[in-house]
Write a structure and sequence with these properties.
Layout lengths: L8 E6 L3 H13 L2 E7 L2 H11 L3 E4 L8 H9 L3 E6 L4 H9 L4 E4 L5 H13 L7 H14 L11 H4 L3 H11 L4 H8 L3 H15 L4 H8 L12
Parallel strand pairs: 1-2, 1-3, 3-4, 4-5
Helix pairs in contact: 2-3, 4-6, 6-11, 8-10, 8-11, 9-10
Length: about 230
């Protein structure tokens, strides 16, 4: 439970499947996240987000009517948006991140405690969670957008102000590795990796993993505007 005077994170859960919604609500509430509302599609989500003003929207991609991809841009102007979907299509994930999603988690690739941590980290601006499959899809989408690997300039860690270790971590992020995998590869703790990631984001002037990858691959000339 939250301590006296500490405001709980307020979440809106958006999914057309009532079983999925119920499961997410139970997991979030058990993790000290206050679910203030539920919605069944993008249009409903926008109505509820305007009315309830949540801190974060957990948004599915594939829904009847207005889907998650159509709703992510307007929703991200109202709250942080964390996509939760079974969809691993690179174009879908790239579009969601480009249009304002702070993170993208693929169902089946995260544990309950990881979901709760992702929600808290996203709202606090500590991290922008991407499932490994989502990270790889973002890289693939960015490379397609620049005409393939041959069209990409070599990353310049000096221009970005990264230390050799931070550049090493960033390269692994760009290859689609999650923090846990990076920790194993570099033989350090996951907390050490998180600290590196936070410093990398600060130096790059970005707030999401997708935006960091874009800058590292040379597809973003300047940091995008930070979303609320």
């Amino acid at each position: 439970m939250s301590g006296a005077g500490i405001r709980r994170v307020r979440a809106l859960v958006v999914d057309d499947n009532p079983v999925v919604r119920a499961g997410l609500v139970a997991l979030l509430e058990a993790g000290d996240v206050h679910v203030v509302g539920e919605a069944v599609d993008g249009d409903h989500a926008l109505e509820e987000a305007k009315r309830l003003r949540p801190d974060i929207v957990l948004l599915d991609v594939r829904m009847p009517g207005v889907d998650g991809l159509a709703a992510v841009a307007p929703l991200s102007a109202l709250a942080k948006v964390l996509m939760l979907s079974y969809d691993t299509d690179a174009e879908v994930i790239g579009t969601a991140i480009r249009d304002g999603a702070s993170g993208y988690l693929v169902h089946g690739s995260f544990a309950a405690e990881e979901l709760v941590a992702a929600v808290h980290d996203t709202v606090a601006g500590r991290a922008s969670p991407l499932s490994p499959a989502a990270s790889k899809a973002v890289v693939e989408a960015l490379r397609r957008a620049t005409g393939g690997a041959a069209a990409e300039p070599a990353p310049d860690r000096h221009a970005l102000g990264l230390s050799p270790r931070e550049a090493e971590v960033m390269e692994l992020i760009a290859r689609g590795h999650a923090n846990r995998e990076i920790a194993l590869a570099l033989v350090v703790s996951e907390n050490t990796v998180k600290n590196h990631v936070n410093r990398i984001f600060a130096k790059m002037g970005v707030r999401t993993r997708g935006a960091a990858i874009a800058r590292w691959l040379g597809t973003a000339g300047s940091p995008p505007s930070a979303h609320r």
